[in-house]
Design brief:
This protein has one domain: 434 Repressor (Amino-terminal Domain) (Orthogonal Bundle), CATH 1.10.260.40. Helices cover 60% and strands 0% of the residues. The chain has 5 helices and no strands. Helix 2 (18-25) packs across helix 3 (29-37).
Length: 72
C-alpha cells in the first residue's frame, strides 16, 4: 500500500475530515489533500504528530509494514 493511501485510510477510519487533520498538523486542508494524493511528502515532524495521534508506529504509517503496531 502506498503511504499516502494509508494516510487517507487512517483519517477516514477515525472519522476525521481533511480539515480536522490540517488542524492537528497546523497546516491547510489543501496541504493535507496533497499529502493524501502523493503530490507532496510530509516532513518527519508531521509523520510523528500523526503517529502519536493515531497511536500507530511510523513504519505502519509510512506503509512499510501492513500490520499496525501501537506506540503505547
Amino acid at each position: 500500500m502506498n503511504h499516502y493511501q494509508r494516510l487517507k485510510d487512517l483519517r477516514e477510519d477515525h472519522d476525521l475530515t481533511q480539515s480536522d487533520v490540517a488542524e492537528i498538523l497546523q497546516t491547510t486542508r489543501e496541504q493535507v489533500s496533497k499529502y493524501e494524493t502523493g503530490k507532496q511528502m510530509m516532513g518527519a515532524d508531521k509523520y510523528i504528530k500523526l503517529a502519536k495521534y493515531y497511536n500507530v508506529s511510523l513504519d505502519y504509517l509510512m506503509g512499510l509494514i501492513d500490520t499496525p503496531r501501537k506506540l503505547y
